[in-house]
Amino acid sequence: MRPLKEIIGLPVLSHLGSNLGVIEDLVLDNKKMLGVGFLVKGKDWYKGIKFISREEIEVIGKDTVITSGDSLRNVTELPEIIDLLDNSIEWRGLPVYTTTGEVLGRVEELFLDEETLEISGIKIREEELIINRDSLVALGSSAVLVRFKADQVETTKEKLTSIKEESIPLEEKGFEAKQSAFLIGKRLARDLIADDGTLIASKGDVINWQIIRKMKNLNRMQELINSIES
């Protein structure tokens, strides 16, 4: 089981040692909860993004992905992949609900089986809670549904309570609550830097309550609003 963020950005090498590009993102069949392959950005990216299927992958290593072929195909040549991309979901930031109707938080990360590319779990809000594949019911366009077994409830009770209490802070009321709810799950279009030069959040990060609180404490909420992807 490996987090997707550790795979994105890895170089892709052919079995002959040629550099074919870097992993850009997962191509996901959300109904099957299965990755069918990866988008690959090559040096000739201006000619089109490329695709590597899970069948073409020999190994996903710590520092590189090695393929069984000498080259990769353009996505434009693969109608079935274009169809998946046209109907893809934005899983980052999706709300997670139990089948009994309780909200647990939002998806922070996917975990993959490196051999099959099956979704082996999801992470909710940093490291507060990880849900394994056995408990995943559906990965939909609007929400993720999960089922907890009886023996899992007690072991996760404290974490779930913490997340639920944090999901809508007591001090958030009226306009501020609506503003924060709007921002949660959005992605940043630029880095957020504190006055002392430290990094608050990076471009591409999903906005969570931690980021919102930091920006509120700095009286820079308008900057945060102006920094979300359009």
Q: Overview of this structure, please?
A:
With 230 residues, the protein is an alpha+beta fold. The chain folds into three domains: 2-86, PRC-barrel domain (SH3 type barrels, Roll); 95-167, SH3 type barrels; 174-226. Helices cover 22% and strands 32% of the residues. The strands form three sheets. Strands 1, 9, 10, 11, 12, 13 and 14 form a seven-stranded mixed sheet that branches. The protein has a seven-stranded mixed sheet with strand order 6-7-2-3-4-5-8. It has a two-stranded antiparallel sheet with strand order 15-16. A hairpin with an 8-residue loop joins β4 and β5 (50-53). It is globular. It starts with a strand and ends with a helix. Residues 149-173 have low confidence and may be disordered.
Features:
230 residues; alpha+beta; SH3 type barrels; 3 domains; seven-stranded mixed sheet; 16 strands; 22% helix
Q: What's the total count of β strands? A: 16
The Cα radius of gyration reads 19 Å
Count of domain modules: 3
Given the helix and strand composition, which structural class is it?
Answer: alpha+beta
In the CATH hierarchy, what is the class of the largest domain? Mainly Beta
- Based on the structure given, which CATH architecture of the largest domain is correct? Roll
Q: Can you write the helix and strand succession as a string? A: EEEEEEEEHEEEEEEHHEEHH
Question: What percentage of amino acids are in beta strands?
Answer: 25-35%
CATH superfamily of the largest domain: PRC-barrel domain
Q: What does the main sheet amount to?
A: 7 strands, mixed
Q: Kindly state the mean pLDDT as a whole number?
A: 82
Unreliably modeled segments: 149-173
CATH topology of the largest domain: SH3 type barrels
State the end-to-end distance. Answer: 33 Å
Shape: globular
Percent of residues in helices: 10-25%
